[in-house]
C-alpha cells in the first residue's frame, strides 16, 4: 500500500467523485448531454463558451508534463497552487480532525486551508541564521511523526524568506516520513532559483508531492492555473475530489500559448532580468541606513528588516509604492517583503527608502 493510500480519508476509500458530462471521452456532432445552451453566448457569439471545457484537457496536460519533465498521469491541473493545497487537505485530512505541519514564516494558505477543514496545524519555525532562514529538518521529521501529521508543507524557494532547500535534503526527509506523511514541496517561485525541482524525485518517493503555478514567472496570475505533481496513484486520488470543471476555457488557451517554444525562450530572458535586478536591489538595500537585513532570495522578492518598518512603509505608500507588510507574521515585526519590479520601479523603491524621492500626487 502506498503512503497516499494509507493516508486517504477512510470515508473516501470507496468515493469516486462526481462524473461530469465531460469526464468521459465521447464523439458526436449534436451535444445534448450537459444541459448547456444550444446557442452561443451573446458575449462570445463566435466562440464555444456555451460548452463546458474538459476537466483535464489532454493537450494541456501533455504540454505541462513536458515542461515540468513528468508524465501526464503524474500531473493534475487546477486553479493555481491554492486549489492544490485545498485538494490535498480535503483528501488526506479527516474533517474536523487530521493534522498538517508547516514551517513559518511561510505561505499563509497552508494554515488557512487546514483550519477551514478543522485540521490541527503544527508549526516548526524556520531558523533565522546569519546566512538566512533554514529548515530544522530533524525537528520537522520528529514533530511530524509525533503528531501523526498527514501533510508537511514546505515552500521552496520560501515565501516570504526566499530560502531554498536542496533536493538531497528533501529526499532524506521524504525517506524519514515514508509511509507516514506526504511531503508537499511548493515550488511557486522555482523558476527564479538554482535548485533542481523536487519533481525529479517522484520516481524514488511515493510520498513527495510538488506544486507549481503559472502565476509568477509565466505572468498568468489572472488566469489562475497551476498544477500538482506526484506519483500517478496520488493524482488519481486527488481527481476524485476536484470540482467537475476546474479550468476556464480562455485560461487554458492562454497557458497553451505560454508553453510554446517561442514564449518559453522569451520567458528565460525575462527570468534572467528578474534575477539580475534582484541582485542589484539586494546590494543597494543592504547598504542603506536603517536597513537591518536584506535576506538573500531565490524568489522574485526580497524580505527586508528595518529599524523602523512602519515609517518606511508609510513613505513607500505616500510615493504610490505598495509592498507587502510582514509585521503581523511572528518574528517579522520589523519586516517588509518587496517584489522585484522593473529597473525603474526598483530604483524608485531605493530612492524612497533613502529619503530622496518626491511624493506622488
UniProtKB/TrEMBL annotation:
UniProt entry tagged with the keyword Membrane: no
GO BP annotations listed: L-histidine biosynthetic process
Record pathway: Amino-acid biosynthesis; L-histidine biosynthesis; L-histidine from 5-phospho-alpha-D-ribose 1-diphosphate: step 7/9
GO MF entries: histidinol-phosphate transaminase activity; pyridoxal phosphate binding
InterPro entries xref list: Aminotransferase_I/II_large (IPR004839), HisP_aminotrans (IPR005861), PyrdxlP-dep_Trfase (IPR015424), PyrdxlP-dep_Trfase_major (IPR015421), PyrdxlP-dep_Trfase_small (IPR015422)
EC number: 2.6.1.9
Pfam families: Aminotran_1_2
Every Aminotransferase class I/classII large domain range: 43-351
Cofactor list: pyridoxal 5'-phosphate
Sequence positions bearing N6-(pyridoxal phosphate)lysine: 216
UniProt keyword annotations, A-Z: Amino-acid biosynthesis, Aminotransferase, Histidine biosynthesis, Pyridoxal phosphate, Transferase
Catalytic function, reaction form: L-histidinol phosphate + 2-oxoglutarate = 3-(imidazol-4-yl)-2-oxopropyl phosphate + L-glutamate
Family: Belongs to the class-II pyridoxal-phosphate-dependent aminotransferase family. Histidinol-phosphate aminotransferase subfamily.
PANTHER family attached to this UniProt entry: HISTIDINOL-PHOSPHATE AMINOTRANSFERASE, HISTIDINOL-PHOSPHATE AMINOTRANSFERASE-RELATED
Subunit structure: Homodimer.
NCBIfam families: hisC (TIGR01141)
Protein's recorded name: Histidinol-phosphate aminotransferase
Source species taxonomy: Bacteria, Pseudomonadati, Pseudomonadota, Gammaproteobacteria, Lysobacterales
Amino acid at each position: 500500500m502506498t503512503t497516499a493510500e494509507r493516508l486517504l480519508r477512510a470515508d473516501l476509500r470507496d468515493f469516486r467523485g462526481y462524473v461530469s458530462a465531460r469526464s468521459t471521452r465521447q464523439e458526436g456532432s449534436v451535444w445534448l448531454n450537459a444541459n448547456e445552451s444550444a446557442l452561443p453566448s451573446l458575449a462570445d457569439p463566435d466562440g464555444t463558451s456555451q460548452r463546458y471545457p474538459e476537466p483535464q484537457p489532454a493537450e494541456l496536460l501533455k504540454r505541462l508534463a513536458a515542461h515540468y519533465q513528468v508524465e501526464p498521469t503524474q500531473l493534475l491541473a487546477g486553479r493555481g497552487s491554492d486549489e492544490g493545497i485545498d485538494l490535498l487537505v480535503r483528501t488526506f485530512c479527516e474533517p474536523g480532525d487530521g493534522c498538517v505541519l508547516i514551517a513559518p514564516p511561510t505561505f499563509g494558505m497552508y494554515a488557512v486551508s487546514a483550519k477551514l477543514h478543522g485540521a490541527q496545524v503544527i508549526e516548526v519555525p524556520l531558523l533565522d541564521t546569519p546566512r538566512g532562514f533554514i529548515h530544522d529538518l530533524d525537528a520537522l521529521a520528529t514533530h511530524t511523526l509525533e503528531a501523526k501529521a498527514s501533510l508537511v508543507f514546505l515552500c521552496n524557494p520560501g515565501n516570504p524568506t526566499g530560502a531554498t532547500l536542496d533536493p538531497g535534503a528533501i529526499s532524506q526527509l521524504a525517506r524519514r516520513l515514508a509511509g507516514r506523511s506526504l511531503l508537499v514541496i511548493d515550488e511557486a517561485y522555482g523558476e527564479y532559483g538554482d535548485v533542481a525541482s523536487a519533481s525529479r524525485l517522484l520516481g524514488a518517493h511515493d510520498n513527495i508531492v510538488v506544486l507549481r503555478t503559472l502565476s509568477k514567472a509565466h505572468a498568468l496570475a489572472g488566469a489562475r492555473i497551476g498544477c500538482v505533481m506526484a506519483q500517478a496513484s496520488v493524482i488519481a486520488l486527488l481527481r476524485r475530489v476536484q470540482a467537475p470543471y476546474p479550468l476556464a476555457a480562455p485560461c487554458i488557451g492562454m497557458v497553451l500559448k505560454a508553453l510554446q517554444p517561442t514564449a518559453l525562450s522569451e520567458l528565460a530572458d525575462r527570468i534572467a532580468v528578474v534575477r539580475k535586478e534582484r541582485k542589484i536591489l539586494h546590494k543597494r538595500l543592504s547598504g542603506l541606513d536603517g536597513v537591518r537585513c536584506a535576506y538573500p532570495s531565490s524568489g522574485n522578492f526580497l524580505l527586508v528588516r528595518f529599524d523602523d518598518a512602519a515609517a518606511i512603509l508609510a513613505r513607500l505608500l505616500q510615493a504610490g509604492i505598495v509592498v507587502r507588510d510582514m509585521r503581523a507574521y511572528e518574528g517579522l515585526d520589523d519586516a517588509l517583503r518587496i517584489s522585484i519590479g522593473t529597473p525603474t520601479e526598483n530604483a524608485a523603491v531605493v530612492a524612497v527608502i533613502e529619503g530622496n524621492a518626491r511624493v506622488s500626487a
